Amino acid sequence: MPPMVRAAVQTGPRALEIREFPRPRIGADDGLLRVEACGICGSDVEQYKGHLGDRFTFPLIPGHEPLGIVEEVGENAARRWGVRPGDRVALEIMVPCHSCERCLSGQYLSCGDRQASHGYTPVEREPGLWGGLAEYVYLHPNSILHKVRGDIPAELAVLFNPLGAGVRWACELGGTRLGDTVLILGCGQRGLTSLIAARAAGAGTVIVTGLERDRAKLDLARDFGADHTIVADAEDVVERVADLTGGAGADVVLELTPLAAEPVIDALRAVRHGGRVVLAGLKGDRTVPMDTDLLVNKAITLVGAYGVDARAYGEAIRIIESGRFPLEKMHTRTFELAETARAIETLAGDVPGESAVHVAVRPGG
């Protein structure tokens, strides 16, 4: 086994380099994951560009969507996680303490004493290998793993994270029920996975919005079961939703657009009286004007979406393993570790002549 591990390290905005780290020594309570693939998320793009402010300490290894093979695992850890070397697993972002009141009550996403976060913990915290854009990821004793079937192509299995977000936002936080009308503002990978989750939950009508430049993604939304698509920079979203719902509005609205304020206002105006709005699109340092009277007078339930929990990950993996949806249509391209910056820029739409819905990095080539 190699004594050194390669990883993509972000040293600042738009600055990535390949470094080597000593392979961690594994004891009885921890483990080591050999990364098969790591998905690139829209928040990776914003982190790479420096749009998320000073909330991160550089240098760090990004990548919070790693899928891989358990390479080494201590005896206690194997028993606790229910895994053995050779098992394929999906790794959650959060490394909670598992002992505080919030963790013990099942609210571990709110843990105030988290041990680390995969993809966000600086390399100065030993053993440094916290992010998924590396050949190996260190498995802290408190890391959370989910088994994934080994016969699914890695590029599809790694969709566990965006699909888990879709399940959490559309079903857990949005409360989508049989027959509901769901409006999804944004047709990126998490807009599409929210569409899949809403369909799996039995939504009656699903409406997805995008921009003129997103025509291909809106076509893909149709493939995944969208009943209607709206080109937001060519049509009035709120008026169109009113027309489609007979003036009632949507039961559930998911606002997933990055760094844009107007869709938040559209969400509040397009939801029905007594409906739910889930905010999941990060806005960086942009201020969004909020009409609180509208919230009150329409009795809107407004929910902020933070993280993905174990239940949503588990359901996402079941959807992937079911083969029910043509997920291969979502994955656009796979990159090598040395191409990490290009992978992020491709997803961002910053590479001339290239567009992407979902990309992944395979550190092993």
Describe this structure in words.
This protein has helices spanning 42-49, 75-81, 101-104, 154-157, 160-173, 189-200, 215-223, 237-244, 262-270, 292-297, 310-322, 340-348; strands spanning 4-12, 15-22, 31-39, 66-73, 88-91, 94-95, 116-117, 136-139, 145-147, 181-185, 205-210, 228-231, 250-255, 271-279, 301-304, 331-336, 358-362. By secondary structure, it is α/β, with parallel strands linked by helices. It has 2 domains: 4-159 and 330-362, Quinone Oxidoreductase, Chain A, domain 1 (Alpha-Beta Complex); 165-304, NAD(P)-binding Rossmann-like Domain (Rossmann fold). Strands 3, 4, 5, 8, 9, 16 and 17 form a 7-stranded mixed sheet that branches. Strands 12-11-10-13-14-15 form a 6-stranded parallel sheet, sandwiched between helices. Helix 1 (42-49) packs across helix 12 (340-348), helix 5 crosses helix 6 and helix 5 crosses helix 11. The mean pLDDT is 95.
Number of helices: 12
Q: What summary fits the major beta sheet?
A: 7 strands, mixed
Rounded to the nearest angstrom, the distance between the terminal CA atoms is: 17 Å
Helical percentage: 25-40%
What's the mean pLDDT score? 95
Strand-residue fraction? 25-35%
Structural class: alpha/beta
Broad CATH class of the largest domain: Alpha Beta
CA radius of gyration = 20 Å
- Overall number of domains: 2
Compressed to H and E, one letter per element, the order equals EEEHEHEEHEEEHHEHEHEHEHEHEHEHE
Which homologous superfamily in CATH is the superfamily of the largest domain? Answer: Medium-chain alcohol dehydrogenases, catalytic domain
How many beta-strand runs? 17
Query: What is the overall silhouette?
Result: globular
* CATH T-level topology of the largest domain: Quinone Oxidoreductase, Chain A, domain 1
CATH architecture of the largest domain: Alpha-Beta Complex
The residue ranges in which pLDDT falls below 50 over 5 or more consecutive positions are none
